[in-house]
Specification:
By secondary structure, the protein is α/β, with parallel strands linked by helices. It has 16 helices and 15 strands.
């Protein structure tokens, strides 16, 4: 059983404006994340820190009761994540949940958030269903999703001649949604899917899957996985000489921490799409240099930046409403207010809950190219928000098509 004491494992102090003191207590934000498994480096403690920094930055030096940030580890299990969410809500521990880097867990939490009329800041999960058939008036999706990742990367690869694809797919909600989104993009772009294979989450040995992909003769092997699975599959693909023999390896989800773990000798040349890069401009770099010393020297991933940005906008909406009590009203305010911060720039939250911002097609630098630590990406192209995200009419969100 998940107890309140177990989940209230950390708090972040900040101050609270007078307009919210009258509403009772300050809002409480629960970062539900992966603290110990394959997404811990890209999400985990760094997302907790991102939420804390948003609280600190929003409230500045004003006097008042502290806003709280708590966290828990969902262990990449939907039942564990759902149990924590219920416990948090039923015990008054949180008003909003952030991060949740696992789409199966996020889809379960999404329903509980709706039932309890709280707020879900989806900064870690990527399934486009969260703004499609599973969209909710209590949720916003911030950083990326499977449509954006598929469209940005696949279109770039198709344009450079990679027309036939074989995918290795993580066998859970994220992978299944990504496969669907990718097939649509590849087919629409004149390419074809040669085949695919499902791999269990947390697979240590990808050899059988890679050999199947190699034997398919596809020009492109798409890795539809993330975190530790991406690291393992790329390492083993290089060991098998797949790239040296002429096939192209494409990571549909690649985090900064993945590249750091792989090293440039292994990761060089990989193309991918991201919603955030720490060295994009002066504003992102300044924030990253505040973040890294508090994160064991590791620079921020897009998930950690997304948690900061989503939390910051949530707090603006709570202030506008004067209370965190009514989750639907807070999300409505998040949609009404324009988004703006140093990490994602200016944007807005669409009717289906999708936060619209520019994204970036990137390529991992070669050894010797970086001029400073953690500067691993070349930006190949900025993809405007209008092109990056699934058109509203195609998502089948009940909030839009009711």
């Amino acid at each position: 059983m998940v107890t309140r004491r177990a989940v209230l494992t950390a708090t972040a102090g900040a101050v609270f404006p007078g307009s919210l003191r009258a509403a009772g207590r300050p809002p409480r934000i629960g970062v539900l994340t992966d603290m110990s498994s394959l997404y811990a480096d890209a999400s985990g403690p760094g997302c907790v820190l991102g939420a804390r920094m948003a609280v600190e930055d929003f409230y500045g030096g004003r006097a008042g009761p502290p806003a709280e940030v708590v966290f828990a580890d969902h262990q990449n299990k939907a039942d564990v994540g759902a149990g924590i969410a219920r416990n948090w809500f039923d015990n008054g521990a949180v008003d909003a949940i952030a991060d949740v880097p696992n789409s199966s867990v996020a889809l379960a939490v999404n329903e509980i958030v709706r039932e309890r009329n709280k707020v879900f800041l989806i900064s870690g999960a990527s399934s486009s269903d969260l703004t499609g058939k599973a969209c909710s008036p209590n949720s916003v999706a911030w950083t990326y999703d499977t449509y954006m990742l598929s469209a940005g990367t696949a279109r770039g690869v198709l344009a450079s001649g990679g027309m036939s694809w074989f995918d290795i797919i993580a066998d859970y909600a994220f992978g299944h949604t990504m496969q669907h989104d990718m097939e649509q993009v590849v087919t629409a772009g004149g390419g074809r899917m040669v085949g695919s294979v499902l791999a269990p989450l947390g697979t240590p040995d990808f050899s059988a899957f890679l050999l199947q992909a190699q034997g398919s003769g596809a020009q492109v092997i798409g890795l539809v996985n993330a975190g530790g699975d991406t690291i393992n599959s790329i390492k083993q693909a290089v060991e098998f000489g797949i790239i040296a023999k002429g096939q192209r390896l494409v990571a549909l989800v690649l985090y900064l921490t993945d590249v750091h773990a792989l090293g440039l000798e292994v990761a060089q040349g990989l193309q991918f799409t991201t919603g955030f890069y720490w060295n994009l401009n002066a504003g992102t770099a300044a924030w990253a240099r505040r973040f890294a010393p508090r994160n064991s020297g590791h620079f921020p991933t897009q998930l950690q930046a997304g948690t900061y940005s989503a939390t910051l906008h949530y707090l603006k909406a709570v202030q506008a409403e004067g209370s965190a009590a009514d989750g639907r009203a807070v999300v409505a305010a998040m949609k009404r207010l324009p988004t703006e911060d140093p990490l994602f720039g200016q944007g807005r939250v669409r009717e289906d809950g999708r936060m619209l911002h520019d994204v970036y097609l990137c390529q991992v630098k070669k050894p010797g190219e970086p001029t400073q630590a953690w500067d691993y990406y070349n930006i190949l192209r900025t993809i405007p928000a209008a092109q990056a995200w699934r058109p509203l009419a195609e998502g089948k969100c009940p909030l839009v098509h009711a």
